[in-house]
Specification:
Layout lengths: L6 E3 L9 E6 L7 E4 L5 E2 L7 E2 L5 H14 L10 E7 L3 E7 L5 E5 L4 H7 L13 H7 L12 E5 L2 E5 L3 H4 L3 E3 L7 E4 L19 E7 L8 H4 L5 E5 L4 H7 L7 H4 L3 E7 L6 E7 H6 L15 E5 L2 H15 L2 H14 L1
Parallel strand pairs: 1-11, 7-12, 13-17
Antiparallel strand pairs: 2-3, 2-6, 4-5, 7-8, 9-10, 9-12, 13-14, 15-16, 15-17
Organism: Candidatus Thiomargarita nelsonii
Protein name: Polysaccharide export protein N-terminal domain-containing protein
GO molecular function: polysaccharide transmembrane transporter activity
Length: about 350
Amino acid sequence: MPISKKIILAPLTLSPGDRVRIAIQEGEEFNGIFEINIDGKLNLPYLEPLMAAGQTIAQLEQQMIHQLIKNGFFRADFIQASVKPLQWRAVRVTVTGAVFQPGRILINDRPVARQAQQQTQQTGDYPTKRYLSAALKGAGGIRPDADIKSIRLIRQGKHQTIDLSGILTGEPVLDIPLIDGDQIVVPSLGYFQTELIRPSQLTPPGFKVFMSNLVFPSPSNAQASIGSGMLSIPYGTRLLRAAVAGNCVGGIQTTNASRSTILISTNPFNGKTQVIKRAIEDLIANADDDILNPYIMPNDGIACYDSGMTSMRDIAGALVNFLTPAVLIKTLLSNGTSN
């Protein structure tokens, strides 16, 4: 199914650290650039602190106008005031549950140069990374067992259930803006959903897996190419395709028919490491079988084993090399010297 292009961004809500520009006609003492405090409140001259965190710009503007009229600074039929966003700060949120990298993450982080530029402009900002979908992506993306119809957002003790399945089905979906301190919980269904194992706005585009394709144990890191044994593959790749990309498949059929590969993976349900061994011929014959040819997940490891024919060929090559006249004479001389 195509990735949804109908993601509707809900109006952003303010968070501690956000900056706004306030302009009031004939109210110069109130005008200026203001930053929301760590407690989520906005302090304006002569007014009680306004609760801004979790409010939209329009809601904060109405709250400010109400306080200005209530305190007798302006008449309702005369006041002209506005609140405009100047800078949407990065926020820290916590993501747990069925994601690949749960924990506390920072979203909407901006380069220093961009932040400096915002200080000189009048108004305006476009923080597309301060939404729920960006937080899930920042946590490594959702796992295949994620219940994306029942994602929970916890804010200041209040719970909200959100359905983001439209991102994967092509239906319109409302993306929720986040503020500092939000908690996101992604429930697990307890089983894999193959329709979630593909690149999307909720899943990783791709990742690297550990790859070993050595015939014999290497005597040194340099000969083993340690540090370069990472294979980049798109999300949704199965074991057979990863084996092909790692040069585990191919060659002369008579000498490679018994080649096999193993997959080292972590079970997301119990956290235990599991090792799966598959013969290359079985993978080729059952390419569409989810059990025999499983999907590769982030941080998996793949190792290739050569066939018995290949191993015997390498051993035979070593024996031939040993029995060459030059090697044989050198060996005899070495033994004679030692005696």
